[in-house]
Amino acid sequence: MDEVIARTVDSCTGCQLVSLPDRPEPMRRKKLPVTPRTDVAIDFLSPLPSGDYLLVIVDYFSRYKEIEVPRKITASETSERLERIFVRLGYPQTITLVYGRQFISTEFETYCKRRGIHLNNTTPYWPQENGLVERQNRSLVKRLKISQALET
Predict the structure, then answer these.
(1) CB–CB of 41/97 below 8 Å?
(2) Tens digits of residue pLDDT in 89-109
């Protein structure tokens, strides 16, 4: 009888509409790199009231972060900003990033291929997969709110 009920519920259109979505696969812990600047995560922080964006780059080994403030978030602008940082600190082996238009463009992919950087794209609409940079972004937003409140 249990099997009949399960099949009936599984095939019921109304039940499928109101049921909870399938749970995502459990996240696997990312293996920590053994040296600095081997694997970095990047993401853009939403536009600030000034219209600027924050490009946040975080090293998985040391948790060291770099922040750039570009006016545009195009692939070429992103590549230029990353180049400034990577020339100074060294090119990583991999970059973990969210599914943004500037990150999935052929121009950005070409930039990374020329420098031997492998791209790890995270699952769209699942920011927890790039949790390190998302956590840093949350911390930055708090600090920005505090500094803005103190100015007024």
Answers:
(1) yes
(2) 999 999 988 777 788 889 999
